[in-house]
Amino acid sequence: MDTITLNNGVEMPLLGFGVFQITDQEVCRKSVLTALELGYRLVDTAACYGNERAVGSAIAESGIDRADVFVTSKVWIQDAGYERTMASFERTLENLGTDYLDLYLVHMPYGDYHGSWRAMEELEREGRVRAIGVCNFLADRLVDLILSHETTPAVNQMETHPLCQQKALRELQAGYGVAPMAWAPFAEGRRGIFSNETLSEIGSAHRKTAAQVILRWLRQEGVVAIPKSIHEERIAQNLDVDDFELSDAEMATIETMDTGRDLILDIATADEAVRLHGITFEQ
Q1: pTM
Q2: 206 Rama sector, left if φ>0, alpha if ψ -120 to 50, beta otherwise
Q3: For residue 37, which phi and psi values (nearest 5 degrees)?
Q4: Class assignment of domain 13-187?
């Protein structure tokens, strides 16, 4: 498995398994277990997904040494702030059945995320988290966070796929040493991306699917990807992207697909802020 070195020296797999929207606990457990058995070594979850316990159960059942599985989770808006983040972190560890996280992320740039960041810096200093980062931070809030604290985020997890490539943001992040991580690498199936003519034609040349072409494109761009599936065949297929390489011309063709805007989460709008603040979950 190819890895990326984060800005604090921690090695992170470039391909992982995401569990967003897998709300059935047994389905989540089985899917994560399948992914681990097939060779995935990065699992990405979050407190607000409600499936941390299922993820932890799968990791324990897999028999794989905990040190060999890179586990990521996130703190939600309702737990923003120093004290609430500390409490949320303890619940996350309990849910996952572990005594540390490999990567802990601020899930949204709302609420007292500066307080959350201070808590995360402390957790990293104590060795209870190996690396800390953020999700969905646009350029202004990302730079503000960097300039306001001692620790620069190791990762910014953003909506990233061929239709929303985040080129300007990724270029900015590179200057600060913040690694890009793609959620929804398949754009949640929107705009017929799995049957997209451009991606399908490129895939045919390599005997690969459009989804595999996307994951290979992200790999060559140095972007960590966390595709999600509950189907064993697709979980295996998403892992099978090491035996081909996209040419410069194919990479350039995919670059022309960029719409320059988010398709799923318009994080900068007031309506989105209201909607996301309204999402809460039982703890």
Answers
A1: 0.97
A2: alpha
A3: -65, -30
A4: alpha beta
Joined tokens for residue 124: 């990293």
Give me the active site residues, please: 49
Please give, one letter per residue, the 3-state secondary structure of 34-50. Answer: HHHHHCCCEEECCHHHC
Helices assigned H by DSSP within 97-247? 113-125, 139-148, 167-176, 197-206, 210-221, 232-239
Cα 165 to Cα 159, 199, 261, distances in angstroms: 8, 15, 8
Beta strand ranges found along the chain (DSSP E): 3-5, 11-13, 17-18, 42-44, 70-75, 103-106, 132-135, 155-159, 179-183, 224-225
Domain limits, the chain: 13-187
Residue 282 burial (10 A CB sphere; 0-12, 13-18, 19+)? exposed
pLDDT tens, residue by residue, 249-260: 999 999 999 999
Token pair for residue 238? 């998403």
